[in-house]
Here is the input.
Amino acid sequence: MTGVIITGQNNHNWPVSHVALKKTLENSGLFKMDVAVSPSAGKDMSAFTVDFSKYKLVVLDYNGDPWSDDMKAAFEEYVRNGGGVIVYHAADNAFTEWDEFNKMIALGGWGGRDEKSGPYVYWKDGALYKDYSPGFGGSHGARHEYVMNSRCNNHPVVEGLPARWKHATDELYDRMRGPGNIKDLLYSAYSPEEKGGSGREEPLVFTVDYGKARIFHIMLGHAGDSLEDNVAMQCTGFQTLLLRGAEWCAKGKVTQKVPADFPTETEISLRPDYRPR
Here is the structure.
């Protein structure tokens, strides 16, 4: 299957993140990934285009200057026609003013997002809760290891995976807000106040209810300083979810088996070479 990673501007270390994404996806043997690198910030974006019709999968690793109207229209058409999209980490910081994009990601942060962007959404009393309180959208505390909590066990992406597992040191996005059109909440995690977090159970991995599209939003995976020093993306749990989410986005089912090296509730697991075990 052929996909494309859109990158080139980000407040995160995109020269590391897009290579790690490409290695993880291609090392599985399931994908051949192209890379579309935008002009640098402040440069002319009018010639930056992607022929989305060529791809089964689009991975968003972009948070920067607005795309051209033609690029935005082409992406909207791709998604509207049932395209597969992965929203990875800080891609949900992008395009605050683009209404359709915000529906495609369901939740976003930073970029001036506030109560006008939609409610806070978090897990409370056994269900997703929409909180319309005023306030900024998007924050995270200190990076740390944390336990992921399953909220759905029968979706193809997570079928057979543990109900609780420990993710390697990473940012934990919280206080995210937006339209809140989450279709399947797959995993959440508690954002502890002692780490500077929200004190809430935050949705971190989910699918989005957006027409015929298959959209997989994963807030995990803060890029490190290098491919070798990149623990959040080297986490076996992150890589497994990325791969299973990518296959589901591309063809609506998952053929991959649960890996033997998947983390447990008490022990992280790493794949430093971005290869399945």
